[in-house]
Amino acid sequence: MLNVKTTLIAGLLASALALSPVTAATPDNMLVVAQNIDDIVTIDPASAYEFSSGEYVANTYDTLVRYDATDTTVLAPALATEWTIDAATKTVIFTLRDGVKFHSGNPLRAEDVVGSWTRVVALDKAPSFILTQLGWTADNIAEMVTAEGNTVTVRYQGDFAPSFVLNVLAARPASVVDMQTVMANEVDGDMGHAWMNKNSAGTGPFSLGTYRPADILSLNANPDYYQGGPSMDRVVIQHNPEGATQRLQLEAGDIDMAKDLEPDQIAGLQGADGVRVETYPQAAVHWVSFNQKTDSLTDPAVWEAARYLVDYQGMANGMLKGQMKVHQAFWPDGFPGALTDTPFSYDPEKAKQILKDAGVETPINVTMDVISAPTFVEMAQAIQASFAAGGINLEIIAGTGAQVITKYRARTHEAMLLYWGPDFMDPHSNAKAFAFNKDNSDDKYASTTTWRNAWMPPAEMNAKTMAALGEQDADKRLGMYLELQKETQAEAPFVIMFQAIKQVAMRDNIKGFVNGATSDYVFYRLVEKE
């Protein structure tokens, strides 16, 4: 039963906020952000594999090399000041930065680097494959990564371009953790994993203050950060999945930044006093996938027909205006090697003919999981309507980000509306996700959309993916990825539809916020309030 008194007070408060020209103000030394963070499953960098947890790791931990807040397009020194690469012996030697301390006060040691990477391989959580693709295993990691004084020697197996190796070591699971503190909090052989989901143990510009799932994530400034302490003493990220509420809070001055506004809410801020909107191109591609464990979704004719059952332009120019652009390949536009052709358009009659010619009986009834968050549910409803015109009936199942992603990783969905961002800035990151599957067995978990949708690509596609990885000629290598994208457009159980554009609304006194192309490049260190 509704509490009438409480409801009346809430309504009067909302009206007052909407009408009053006077706004509150957040503290000068604190950044308050409203954001949907219910996708977080874990915040340990050895297992963190969601967009929101990626932002957290980027602000609390460091890698040896990274794409930094000052320029997210350039791979720069971080915890390592220099490195030498010997491609002939497949070796990289890193020299560590002097004087760096963890949040605990413990000094950074080469042993922490070795221990951090060994821990990722041993725990074998979702993102561990990023490091193990260098040929590292639990059995050989002690020989592949070694410490001596202030240097770390990395050995790898495979015919990789040196740039690929460095990009792997700039990725999230390569974050360096305070092994003395982490292992002091080990319980039952978990290598401190449970503790790390409630605490931070990094060298980053912020340390963890408070984390309550789907509630709040707060960060405390590290004044001793090697690149200089942040201007903000605290960053408070309030979980709020409702764009309408975020807009109200922003206009009232209760928050400094709103990250999940829908296009109409962004449009409604035009001319709002004290507010501006910034736009950031993103690397995330959005798609519908079909689980090959579902019998009605295994015919390639269903995949082909589905590609003509999305109203790409209608959605991009309407409900998604300003937040998505049509993109139909797995590697995002704006990066070398991206395929920008868009061969598919909304054509339900063509889709029905494809199904008829293949002898596929309609209607096909299937469930589709989607994150219950602004834009996603609306996208799902639009897709539901356009698919129905071709004889594919979708039942939408909405859940929190964590629920949907957990189900996806367990391969228990039927259809899925989701997004994918590169794990590191190399086209192999997405090629391996969309065009390669080493083993489709249920007990051979892989953090790829091929395995999660139980799809085994043709042997030739698998071979081409690995050949592109090892190609030393840069131009030829990019050409090979273009061909892989064309093949997955034609042969895979995915309907890739859009590339994201991030719109962030903020108070106009906020300066220095950095939102790179992926969640790993969202930085609060340079934020100031004027």
Structure, explained:
- This is Peptide/nickel transport system substrate-binding protein.
- Belongs to the bacterial solute-binding protein 5 family.
- With about 525 residues, the protein is α+β, with helices and mostly antiparallel strands.
- The protein has 19 helices and 21 strands.
- A hairpin with a 3-residue loop joins strand 8 and strand 9.
- Strands 1, 8, 9, 10, 11, 12, 13, 14, 15, 16 and 17 form an eleven-stranded mixed beta sheet that branches.
- The longest helix is centred in the last third of the chain and has 18 residues, at about 475-490.
- Helix content is about 30%, strand content about 20%.
- The two termini are about 45 Å apart.
- Helix 16 (about 430-435) runs parallel beside helix 19 (about 475-490) and helix 18 (about 460-470) runs antiparallel to helix 19 (about 475-490).
- The relative contact order is 0.15.
Short description:
This protein is of the alpha+beta class and 530 residues long.
Helix and strand topology:
Blueprint: H1 4-19, E1 30-35, H2 51-60, E2 65-67, E3 75-77, E4 80-86, E5 91-96, H3 110-123, H4 129-132, H5 141-144, E6 145-148, E7 151-155, H6 162-169, H7 179-184, H8 193-196, E8 206-212, E9 216-221, E10 234-239, H9 243-252, E11 257-258, H10 263-268, E12 275-290, H11 300-306, H12 312-317, E13 324-326, H13 348-357, E14 364-371, H14 376-388, E15 392-399, H15 401-409, E16 415-420, H16 428-435, H17 449-452, H18 459-470, H19 474-491, E17 494-507, E18 510-511, E19 514-515, E20 522-523, E21 528-529
Parallel strand pairs: 1-10, 1-11, 14-15, 14-16
Antiparallel strand pairs: 2-3, 4-5, 5-7, 6-7, 8-9, 9-10, 11-17, 12-16, 12-17, 13-17, 18-21, 19-20
Helix pairs in contact: 11-13, 16-18, 16-19, 18-19
Main location: periplasm
Protein name: Peptide/nickel transport system substrate-binding protein
Signal peptide: 1-24
